[in-house]
């Protein structure tokens, strides 16, 4: 099957809509960088959906060739209700420590635990059954299967945007960096040229626009990913965080 030509994904095309991750209120628990980082990734997927629907009379063909009639089979986390409750409690304690400047032991999550926390924290239902997290190496692998019934004129009826992305996560100079490393849409893997612009953009940078979230992120000392585990360590309480340094990232944010 011939694939439609792909224009390079520029920073502007991959710019996610603004996200306000302000969650540090008296009656609402903070969601933290895991939730909002995945929200940014999902925004990226929806933007790719928008790219597919651009093109005038070619719209129907582009959607048909780049989407599927069936969703991906994403397995639910293999955890009991009690285990999920324990994960939520553990993550909430860790996030509260980030928020209040207290010490906390390192947080380690398995793939199922991270996915379950994402699903359970999603009050709007964007992630449940649609997003799966994997930690194969130093990247977060995100599998998503998005129903396209929201598209106008019935163009997305019975169609699913099935995508896989690998996100490189690092902490440099006191800043959390999340950069797109690879992207596959249906059976089309985007090339190095396609992703050239996207790889210069820190997907986590907009999180720093919220003062409270930026203060929480400044507590992260180290993130390690691999062998199915996500490991996050905080700086000791009372340690002055380094001034954020975004380096030479090529972005207009």
Overview of this protein structure:
By secondary structure, the chain is of the alpha+beta class. The chain has 5 helices and 8 strands. The chain has helices at residues 32-52, 59-66, 81-100, 111-121, 211-217, and strands at 107-110, 131-134, 139-147, 160-172, 175-185, 188-189, 220-226, 229-234. The strands form 2 sheets. Strands 2-3-4-5-6 form a 5-stranded antiparallel beta sheet. The chain has a 3-stranded antiparallel beta sheet with strand order 1-8-7. Helix 3 crosses helix 4 (111-121) and helix 3 crosses helix 5. The radius of gyration is 19 Å and the shape is globular. It starts with 31 loop residues before the first helix and ends in a 19-residue tail after the last strand. Mean pLDDT is 76; it is low at 1-28 and 44-57.
Describe the structure concisely for a colleague.
Helix content is 26%, strand content 22%. It has 253 residues and is an alpha+beta fold.
Helical amount: 25-40%
Radius of gyration: 19 Å
Number of strands: 8
Largest sheet: 5 strands, antiparallel
Features:
single chain, 253 residues, alpha+beta, 5-stranded antiparallel sheet, 3-stranded antiparallel sheet, 5 helices
Topology:
Blueprint: H1 32-52, H2 59-66, H3 81-100, E1 107-110, H4 111-121, E2 131-134, E3 139-147, E4 160-172, E5 175-185, E6 188-189, H5 211-217, E7 220-226, E8 229-234
Antiparallel strand pairs: 1-8, 2-3, 3-4, 4-5, 5-6, 7-8
